Structure formats: structure tokens, C-alpha cells
Amino acid sequence: MTTFPAPGTLPDPSAEQLNPGQHDREQAAVLADARAAGIRAGRWLRSLAPADAHPVPGVTHPLLDLADAVEMTLDRLDPFDTAVRDPHTGTVIGGDGGVGPEVREQLWEGAVVLGDGLTPGQKTAVLAVAGAARLAADLHGYGDYTVDLPVLTAVIDHAVTAASG
Question: Is the whole-model pTM more than 0.85?
Fold first, then answer.
């Protein structure tokens, strides 16, 4: 004899069933918005670089490095890539939020473009974009992506729009 579940006990098919490590819809949308802001900011930063930004093969202009780092940061954010503390040694293991040390270094180094012929408004915007990207890279350690990342994304978009207009 086949038994069927009692009425009202079946899972709601419209309810999203998440696997561990899977973003919910709100988080996925926030991450997609951040990726788009990173692309816009990267384009803008590249537009600020001098036309002869590659005078030496293998050496790039700091604005181009920063553009790459901002795009990579906002594209690679991973709320599930969190650090854990080894209970035996107390050592923090792994977990960089998806943004590795080489990209983080580019965020710091690339933001040092202040003496590069930019207007005060452009300099302010470059610092705002770099700072917001650095904070986004660290959200895995202390923030709430669905609350904090939209604020950082808005800062990036506002800085780019204000400096472009």
C-alpha cells in the first residue's frame, strides 16, 4: 500500500531550497550589482589613464592596475570563503572572501595615483572607488553582504558619476 504525505506537509515548490555555499536570490542580486559597478568603475579608471599608459613593456600604469583590481575584486566576492580559526593552534586558515592577496595589493598600490595630473574631483573619486572596493573585499570577515555591499556599490557608482559629469 502506498502512503502519501498528509495535505499541507509537502515542501512549498516556490520556496527556494539552498545547498550549502549557494547564494539566495537577494545575495545573488547584490553580488551581480557589485560586478556591474566594478565593470563601470574599471572603464572609468581606464579612461583616466594617459594615452601612453604603456610606455615600457611589462610595466603598467597605476590607474590601469587599479581598474583591473577593482573589477576583479567586485567580480570575485565570495561570502562563503570565510576564514576559520584552528581550535588547536589559534591560527586563522583560509578565507579571503574570494579576493586574493595579489588583488588586494593592487587595490592599495593602484590607488596611489594622486600626483598623476588628475583633477581634485577625480582624485577624490579614485580614492572613494579604491576604498569602497577594499572594504568590499573585507566584508567576508565582518559585514553583511546584503546590507553593506549595496552601500559600497552606491559609493562607487556615485564617485564615478560625480567625477565623470
Answer: no
- In contact, 136 and 149? CB cutoff 8 Å: yes
Distance between CA atoms of residues 84 and 75, nearest Å: 23
* 153 grid coordinates: 556599490
Place of cell 579576493: 99
Cα radius of gyration (the chain):
21
Helices (H), the chain: 25-48, 62-76, 101-110, 120-137, 139-142, 145-164
Cell of 140: 567576508
Question: pLDDT tens digits for 18-61?
Answer: 445 567 899 999 999 999 999 999 999 999 988 776 666 667 78
Residues 6+ away with beta carbon under 8 Å from 69: 103, 106, 107, 110, 133
CA–CA separation, 102 and 154 (whole Å): 25
